Amino acid sequence: MKAARLVVLGVAIAAGGIAAYLAAGSKAPPPPPVAAAPPLETVDVLVAKSDLTRGQVIQSQDVGWQSWPKDAANANFIKKPDRPDAINDFVGAIVRVAMLAGDPIRGPYVVMAKGSGFMAAMLPKGMRAVAVDISAVSSAGGFILPDDFVDVVLTHRDKSSTVEKYISDTILRNVRVLAVDQTIDQKGDAKVAIGRTATLELTESQAETLELSHQLGTITLTLRSILDSASSASEEDDEANGRGHSINTVRFGVSTTGTGH
Description:
The protein is of the alpha+beta class. The protein contains five helices and eleven strands, in the order αββαββαββββαβαββ. The chain has a five-stranded antiparallel beta sheet with strand order 5-8-7-6-9. A two-stranded antiparallel sheet has the order 1-2. A hairpin with a 2-residue loop joins strand 10 (247-251) and strand 11 (254-258).
């Protein structure tokens, strides 16, 4: 009897060992080690170290190098391997497009003045800066600010009428305001101020049309919506009618072009 118990006990121990062996063999293998990510390749890019406003003259402390993912640095960025002395190159340049701290410096955003005044340096090639006298009434209550787009309206006497009669014509469309008085950049928290002079960005023919209009009547600026600043083909046609010192007049649905004399 004693021997039988020993046999049963031995069989139980053997069965337990076999079960433990099988259980250990069924465990999932350990996961393979995770490969380390390759290091991010970077390049030093010239950026604004502080907020830069339009018309500001860049000083050495205003720009500096900052590491940038190489794949994200496009061809318009100024990279240290290509231009190691770029900081010195941009000292004295004039900001054409406002930038926030950390924004990459791009060539079109600044202009090298080379001794010129900042307004002459900021004008695109072929454009003219023309001043217009304004008041609260003729400048949308003073809400016209730098970088807004406006239409120019001429109000003058109708010389073809036998009675005293005045008509208004839009002589220029969608022109950019460069400055109001001496202000060329409008801060976000700035208060509305009534200026006395608005400086407009015009082509040569537009400037001639505007100067002629001063002799014919009263000039008013009408503020355009920011969503409506793109010129349409019809507006460009109207603008073309203003070339050669002529003015397009619309009366009772009939359009005529005259010299205004």
